[in-house]
Specification:
2 copies of one chain form a homodimer. Chain A is an alpha/beta fold and 214 residues long. Chain A has 8 helices and 9 strands. In chain A, helix 1 crosses helix 4 (67-78). Chain A starts with 7 loop residues before the first helix and ends with a helix. The model of chain A has no long low-confidence stretch (mean pLDDT 95). At the A-B interface, helix 1, helix 5 and helix 8 of A face helix 1, helix 5 and helix 8 of B. Chain A binds a DNA duplex (24 and 24 nucleotides) through residues 7, 9-10, 33-35, 43-47, 49-50, 52-53, 57, 59-65.
DNA sequence: TAGATTGTTAATCGATTAACAATC
DNA sequence: TAGATTGTTAATCGATTAACAATC
C-alpha cells in the first residue's frame, strides 16, 4: 500500500517542514499559503506544493494550508508518535550527549537501553537509564525487541556490531561512527551521520571564499 | 581564479572520497582505478571521474589514480591543512562533546576559544582550553580574529548571536542549534546540522518499511 | 604494441520550477 | 460571484550515467 515511490529528496525535507510549521503554530499562525511558507523557508512555492502532494491534498484552494493540521499530517507521515524502541551502543562522550540531548520521544523513538563494552561504565546513569554491559545485548534484544540502534562507537567496531545487531533483529541504524555503514539487504536501513564531513565542507566554503576575494 | 562553478553535490562528496582514500592508504594500497573505488564506495566509476575532473586530471590513463597523491590533492582542495581559527559558543553537553570529539585540526580548523553565557562555567577546562564568559567575545575576536564559529546553543539565542558574531568578523557558522540559520549576505556561509531531522528521516524509513511488510 | 583506464562529450534520468485549470 | 491559492501537468534545469576517443 505504501508510498514507496516518494523520492528521498522529498523525505529529507519533511522534518524541516515539520519544524517550521511547529514554530508557526507556536506563534499562533492558523493558516499559511505555499507562497508565504516558501518565503520563510527560502524555497519555492511550487516545491512545497509538489512535496506535499506526494502524500495527498492537505490544502484548500483559495485558502492555503491549516498550519496545525498540516503539521499533524506531516508528523503522521514521519511517524513521530510511533515510538519505535531504540538502543544506544557506546556510552562515551558522544553517546551520553546523544542519549540526553535528542528527544527521541518527539521523533518516533523510545530509547530503552544504553550499552558499552567497558565494564567500568556499567550501572552509570544517563537520563533515566543505566548503562549495561554489551554482553547483555543479545538477551536484552530478545526480551525487548528493539528495532533500531544508535552507534556511538569507534569505526573499528562498527561493521562487526552492526552485523551482530542485525542478527538480533535491528532494522535501522543511526550511525555516528566514522565508518560508512552500508545496508546490504533492503530490509535494513542506515542513516550515516558524518559530522566530520560536514565540518570539512565548511572548511572548503571558507577557503574558497578567501580565494575568490583575492 | 577559483572554481566557483563546482556544484554543491560534488563538494559534499569530497570528504567521503578523502575518508575512503585515507583507509586505502592505511591499508597500503598504492593505486586504484575509478572502477575499483566505485565498488568500494557504492557509486559509479563515471561519477568518480566526473567529480575529480572538476578539479583537474589527477589520474593517468591505463593506470588509474595514485591513492596517496589523490588523497593529498583532495585534502588540498578541501583545505584540511588551512587551520582556520574557530571558536565554539555554548559549553553545554553538546558543546563539550564537539570540542573534544571533532579533530578540528585534521579538518581545516584550529579551535582557539570556547564561550558560554553561564558564569559558573568560566574557567572550566575542555581539552586544552578554558571556557570564557561570552562577555569577552568581542575583545577576544578583535585580538584573535577567528573566522568561524560553532554554535551549540539553544535555538532562541542562535539568530542574535550569529548576527553579533558576524559583526566581529565571523564568516562561517557550523550551527548545531535547532534553528535554521540563513546566510543573508553571500560573504557568510552556514552549515546547519540538524541531527533531529536525520533521526526523523530514520523513523520514516523504519515505519514505511513496516507498512510495506504488511 | 596491446591493454587498461582516464578525461570528456553526449544521453539519460530525476528533481525543480513554471504555468494554469480546477475549485474553494 | 470574484479573488486567491491549490493540485497537477508541462517545461526547464541540473546531476548522473553511458560511451568512447585519447593516451599512458
Amino acid at each position: 500500500m505504501s508510498k514507496n515511490s516518494v523520492s528521498n529528496s522529498v523525505i529529507r525535507r519533511l522534518p524541516r517542514y515539520y519544524r517550521f510549521l511547529g514554530e508557526l503554530e507556536k506563534q499562533g499562525t492558523v493558516r499559511i499559503s505555499s507562497r508565504e511558507l516558501s518565503e520563510k523557508m527560502a524555497l519555492t512555492a511550487s516545491q512545497i506544493r509538489q512535496d506535499l502532494n506526494c502524500f495527498g491534498g492537505f490544502g484548500q484552494q483559495g485558502y492555503g494550508y491549516n498550519v496545525s493540521e498540516l503539521r499533524e499530517k506531516i508528523g503522521e507521515i514521519l511517524g513521530v508518535h510511533s515510538g519505535n524502541p531504540i538502543i544506544l551502543i557506546g556510552a562515551g562522550n558522544l553517546g551520553r550527549t546523544i542519549a540526553t540531548h535528542m528527544s527521541f520521544a518527539e521523533r518516533g523513538f523510545r530509547l530503552i537501553g544504553i550499552f558499552d563494552i567497558d565494564p567500568k561504565l556499567s550501572g552509570v546513569e544517563i537520563g533515566d537509564l543505566k548503562v549495561r554491559n554489551s554482553i547483555e545485548l543479545e538477551r536484552f534484544c530478545i526480551e525487548n525487541s528493539p528495532t533500531a540502534a544508535v552507534l556511538c562507537i569507534p569505526k573499528e567496531a562498527a561493521a562487526e556490531i552492526a552485523k551482530r545487531l542485525q542478527s538480533y533483529g535491528i532494522k535501522a541504524f543511526w550511525n555516528f561512527s566514522h565508518f560508512d555503514l552500508r545496508s546490504e539487504n533492503s530490509d535494513v536501513i542506515v542513516e550515516n551521520v558524518h559530522l566530520g564531513d560536514s565540518l570539512m565542507t565548511l572548511a572548503y566554503g571558507l577557503n574558497s571564499m578567501n580565494d575568490t576575494e583575492k
